[in-house]
Amino acid sequence: MKVPHLRTTEPGLPAGRRPRSGRVFRGPAVLTALGLLFALVVASAPDGRAPLPAGSAGGPDPGHPRWKRAFLASVDHPDAPPPRANDWDCEPAARHPRPVVLVHGTYENAFSNWSALSPRLSAEGYCVFAVNFGAPRGDVNKGRAAVPDSAAEVARFVDRVLDRTGARQVDVVGHSQGGGILPRYYLKFAGGADPGDPARNKVHHLIGISPANHGSTVSGLATLAQRLRVLAPVAEFGGQALADQTIGSAVNRRLDAGGDTMRGVRYTTLVTRRDRIVTPYERQYLRPGPSVGEVTNLTVQDVCPQDRTGHMGTPYDPVVLRLVSNALDPATARRPDCGPAPAAPGRGPS
Fold first, then answer.
1. pLDDT of res. 331
2. DSSP characters for 258-322?
3. What is the pLDDT of residue 168?
4. What is the pLDDT of residue 207?
5. Read out DSSP for 44-84?
6. Which among 105, 128, 163, 131 is positioned nearest to 53, based on CA atoms?
7. How far apart are alpha carbons 228 and 150 in whole angstroms?
């Protein structure tokens, strides 16, 4: 993963000049270290291992059972949808009348995030769509833009899905930023839900996988950046989405005011205690608003105590994938096969 170059002066100042405030940023070593540490946290994430659905292997685009493999494959086609997604002629079946919209996380893309879940849901009979957002075309590290801007992109994509499929609502499944702060912002401020008339909501169910719901310390990195007063330049070069997802950000304060949820929308969170990116992991859970009670917070280790999947591996963890299918279609729900733990010990933070 590329680490953005980080300048050490205020924008517009010649190199070596002091900022007008008289404060000098702590130097390139600190900024570069923060970027490298964040990249290492992501790069050292233990892979989840997801079995590919029957019929997906051996085709021209069979998908990938692990996050790292999918990410590396996406470098050559960063704007491609994941396997069996974005068939704009797909007609929702009576059994699954709502299309599923997949929303990737920060520094990810649709292919790298959903190369296991997309073909699985398609094989289960869903019309599956996956959006790329938050970066220019051709950039493999997407999801970096300010959350309100990305929410507007997601809003346009959902409108297109509804228009092309003729469906009244969609279900949203997202990872990290894409399962938490971003779709919640879309629901509350960008047209995803209508507080005055829930029957007009465009989203029926939001399922957040390792969702960034209430800000993160990123295992202390974001807290360190705030204390050193370098979060602004880190966000300038690493993407505003990083700052928007820190604890106490302006976006988080606005979003959380008045409660976590919207009337008429179901919410499910799928959380791993081994998360080292959205930390503390308890900040991923949602609390129902004053008139909303349909919130389900699930912890992976409460279902499979030995599951070692971390943040990046959750969209590829067979346990999590089963829980997503259960949430989308409770009538066919079954207990996940806990099996062997998907991550080997000693692989570093996730």
1. 95
2. T-S--TT-EEEEEE-TT-SSS-SGGGG-----TT---EEEEEHHHHSTT----TTTGGG-HHHHH
3. 98
4. 98
5. TPPPP--PPPTT-TTSSS---SSHHHHHHHHTTSTTPPPTT
6. 128
7. 28
DSSP string, 107-170: T--HHHHHTTHHHHHHHTT--EEEE--SS-TT-SS---S-HHHHHHHHHHHHHHHHHHH--S-E
Helix, strand, coil distribution of the chain in percent, nearest 5? 35, 10, 55
Complete domains list, the chain, with CATH: 70-330 (3.40.50.1820)
Segments in the chain below pLDDT 50: 1-46, 54-60, 220, 223-225, 342-350
How many Å apart are CA 115 and CA 284, to the nearest integer? 23
Query: What does the pLDDT read at residue 346?
Result: 35
What is the reported pTM?
A: 0.81
Phi and psi angles of residue 332, each rounded to the nearest 5 degrees, phi first:
-110, 15
Give the pLDDT of residue 349.
32
Kindly report the length of the chain. Answer: 350
Token pair 């220019």 is at which residue? 136
Note the pLDDT of residue 68: 87
Query: At 192, which helix (H) or strand (E)?
Result: none
Structure tokens at 326: 């259960």
